[in-house]
Design goal:
By secondary structure, the protein is α+β, with helices and mostly antiparallel strands. It has one domain: YggU-like (Conserved Hypothetical Protein Mth637, Chain: A). The protein has a five-stranded mixed β-sheet. The chain is globular and about 40 Å long.
């Protein structure tokens, strides 16, 4: 059985992208970050909300399982993700580093 816990995920948001996608690596202030490109503009928290939902979808979780910890007004954010830790860690490696 997989342990359920909280995983902190560093994310680099690219607002206003022509297409939404989750994948790639950015070495940011919080360490290796997952790149999340969203269509939403960086206005009134819309890009942050779009990134939160995109991250949840990419991890196969409900949006409620992902919450913003820090970085509301920054492209570099930390999200807390609640779910099966080993599954989340493996999926993050796939998305960020392209490894399985």
């Amino acid at each position: 059985m997989t342990a359920v816990g909280t995983v902190t995920v560093a994310v680099r948001v690219k607002p206003g992208s022509s297409r939404a996608r989750v994948g790639g690596r950015f070495d940011g202030p919080h360490g290796p970050a997952l790149v999340v490109a969203v269509n939403a503009p960086a206005v009134d928290g819309r890009a942050t909300e779009a990134a939160r939902r995109a991250l949840a979808e990419a991890l196969g979780l409900r949006p409620a399982a992902v919450t913003l910890r820090t970085g509301a007004a920054s492209r570099d954010k930390l999200f807390e993700v609640v779910g099966p830790e080993s599954v989340i860690d493996a999926r993050l490696r796939e998305l960020r580093d392209g490894s399985r």
